[in-house]
Amino acid sequence: MPDIKFIIENKALVEEGLAKKGYTKEDLDIDALIELYRNIAALKTSSQKLSEEKNKLSAQIKSASAEDRPDIIAKSKEIGEEFKRQDEELSKLEEEFNLMMLKVPNLPSPESPIGPDDSGNVVRRVVGEIPHFDFTPKDHIELMEFNDWSEMARIAKVSGARTYAIKNDLAKLELAMHMFVLDKLRSYGFSVITVPSVSKEKPLYGQGYLPFSRDEVYYLPQDDLYLSGTAELILNSLRADELLNENELPILYAGFSPCFRREAGAAGKDTRGLVRVHQFMKTEQFVICKDDINESEKWHKKLLEISEEVLQDFELPYRVLEVCTGDMGAPKYRQYDLEAWVPSQNCYRETHSCSNITDWQARRTNLRYRANADGKVRYVHTLNNTGIATPRALVPFIENHQNADGTVNIPVKLQPYMGGVKIIGKNAK
C-alpha cells in the first residue's frame, strides 16, 4: 500500500492512478481517507494534551490542601473520562483508516497501457511458429484418453469437479517440467525452496489477496488457516518485519508448492480438462530487491526473459502481452503475461504472469533494508513470476507436440529429465 504522506502530497496523481485501474470514488474515496487521517492526527494531539494535563493534576493532589484536593480529584476524573472517550474513538478511527489503506492499490507504471479490462492488453511480441498439422489433431483430453494418461472421470467422483489425476508418462512429464525449471532457476542464482500450502490470515493481507479476493481462497475455519494459491504468498511474508542489510539484496527464491484456488469467479469457463482446476503445482520466481525503480524494472525484465527461455526450451509458440491498467489487479505496478498457443482452442492461453509490485507488498509486511549510501531505512521492492504451473502448461505442451499416431514428442532440452525418452504415448517405439 502507498504511504499516506505520499497520498496527501500527490493526491491528483493518486486519483489519476486509481482511475486508470478502474476505481471510482465509491470504491475508494481519497478525500475521505485524507480527512480520516487528519482527524486521527488531531485526536492524537488532543489526547496527548489531556494525558499531560491529567499527569499534572495527579502530581498536584499530593501537595494540595484538604480544601483544594476534592476539586483537583474531580477535575482529574473528568479529564480521565474524556481521555478514555477519545481513546476509544481513536481506536475506531484507526481501525477504519487501516482498513481503507489496505484497499488502496499500487499505482500503475506510466509505461503500462491504459485500458478497462483484458481488451486493453497489448501484444508486445509473438515468438515461434504455430503448428500446421497434416492430420486432424486431438485436444489434450483426447490425447489423455487415447494414451491412458488420466483418470479424469473417476477422480471427479472422488474429489468433485475441476480436479485432475494424471498418470504414466504424463505424470512423469509434469514432474520433469518442474525439475527442469527449478534447475534453470538455480543456475541463475535462485535459492530453491519448498514451502507449505497453508497460511495464517495476515500473509494474505501482506500479499494483497485480502481484502480483494476473499472468495477465491479456501479457508479452514477449524484451524483458522487458508490454503495458498501460490508460493508467492508464503515467500512474500517469509522475511516479514525484518530489517535487512543492502548487501543481502537481491534475494532470489524459486518456490515450489501445491496450490489451491476456488476459481469462484470462473463459472462456466474451462470446466473440462486441465486448464482451470482447484489444485495444481507451481514453481514460482520471487525477487526481493532494493527500493529503486530502475533496479526492480531490471529484475522484471530478467524474470520475463527466464520464462520466455522456458517456453522456448519447451519449443512452444507463444506471445508476450503487456497487461493494461484495468486488468493488472491491485498490487501490480507493471505486468506482463506469457501465453502459449493452444491448437484445439485456436488461441493463445496464459502460462506465466510476471509482475513488478514495487514497495506495495513490503509496506504491508514491514520488510525493510538499511541503505549503504546514507544509512536510511527503506522498504524493499518485490517481484514475482511463474516459473511453470501445471497441469495448465501441459495443455499447450502435448497439443503442440502431438503426432498423427497420438504420440507426443519431447523437446531435446527436456529429454534428460524424461530419462532420455524422445517420444511418449502408447504407440511410442
Description:
- The chain has 429 residues and is of the alpha+beta class.
- It has 2 domains: 4-102, Serine-tRNA synthetase, tRNA binding domain (Helix Hairpins, Orthogonal Bundle), CATH 1.10.287; 118-424, BirA Bifunctional Protein, domain 2.
- It is 39% helix and 20% strand.
- The chain contains 12 helices and 16 strands.
- The strands form 4 sheets. The chain has an 8-stranded mixed β-sheet with strand order 1-9-10-11-14-8-7-2. The protein has a 3-stranded antiparallel β-sheet with strand order 3-5-4.
- Strand 12 (368-370) and strand 13 form a beta hairpin.
- Helix 8 crosses helix 9.
Rg calculated over all Cα atoms? 27 Å
Strand content: 15-25%
Major β-sheet profile: 8 strands, mixed
Q: Helix proportion of residues, in percent?
A: 25-40%
Distance between the termini: 57 Å
Which geometry do the CA atoms define? elongated
The CATH architecture of the largest domain is: 2-Layer Sandwich
Number of strands: 16
The CATH topology of the largest domain is given as BirA Bifunctional Protein, domain 2
Which strand order does the major sheet show?
Answer: 1-9-10-11-14-8-7-2
Order of helices and strands: HHHHEHHHEEHEEHEEEHEEEHEEEHEE
Number of helices: 12
What's the CATH H-level superfamily name of the largest domain?
Bira Bifunctional Protein, Domain 2
Compute the average pLDDT: 94
- Indicate the CATH class of the largest domain: Alpha Beta
Low-confidence parts: none
Helix/strand class:
alpha+beta
Total domains: 2
